[in-house]
Amino acid sequence: MVFENYKKFGKCAVLSKGGKKMLVTVDVGPRIIFYGYEGGENIFFEDSQDSINRDSDFIRENLKGKGIWHIYGGHRLWKSPEYEDTYYPDNAPVEVVERGNVVDFISEAESTTGLKKVMSVEMHEDGNATVTHSMQNVSDKNTPPVAIWTLSVMDKGAEAVIPLSEEDTGLLPNRNLVLWSYTDIKDERFTLTDSELRVKQNVEIKKAFKLGTFIQKAVAVNIKGMQFKLDFDVKEGDFADYSCNLECYTCDKMLEIETLSPLTTIKPGQILTHVVRLSLEKQS
Fold first, then answer.
1. What is the CATH number of the domain that holds 43?
2. Is the separation of the CB atoms in 276 and 131 below 8 Å?
3. CA 9-282-78 angle, 5° bins
4. Of 39, 47, 237, 284, which is most buried, counting CB atoms within 10 Å of its CB?
């Protein structure tokens, strides 16, 4: 495994194929903190100023010595539904295990949730990647219903293109649109058509915006002359946030594309997985 120090994020594992490069933090996180072409720009947001972090009574009372939660940036693995215990401060070193073409990035077990998280990254010859996200229940009790939640934090100027179902379902609905309490449906960053949702990051607008839906196709993000695509297998089951498997959040700093697995009760020793495929191409 090749490592390099990257900016303020410390030691990172280097994955490089097909003229594309990924850096995954191992001093903290893990985060896929960089994804782009060799010698090119990063499509992911880097929180070099530590402008997005979270402290809380929950962290201070239950996680003394762990520090506060930092977004860092990049692509991360989280737990849904979003409660205070979602913000576990992942500031500790990450275990790295190579298995052929796959590299496992293993976080410490969370004392508050009983979950041990793993991001397993396989970079293919074309420089695209398959990321398997896992949560294992290492406690002696069943978890409440939880979902794997993956968040790709895109840099400024990103525009998400979220496809909607165009299936003719007759008398039954074929699309859903879920809004958060702070979301303004008339927000200029948001566009809705019969076939897609678009959300464009704008550095001039601080107010947060978030929506959710249930998708069947890959999501695209246009950024810096490139198109990033995120695809995952659609599964049946109950989903958090009024039946969302895809969510999008933006503010003046970044834009997030978020995928969710079905809600699942994880028994002691069991592992829940969620596979996401990431690809990147230059736009003509």
1. 2.70.98.10
2. yes
3. 40
4. 47
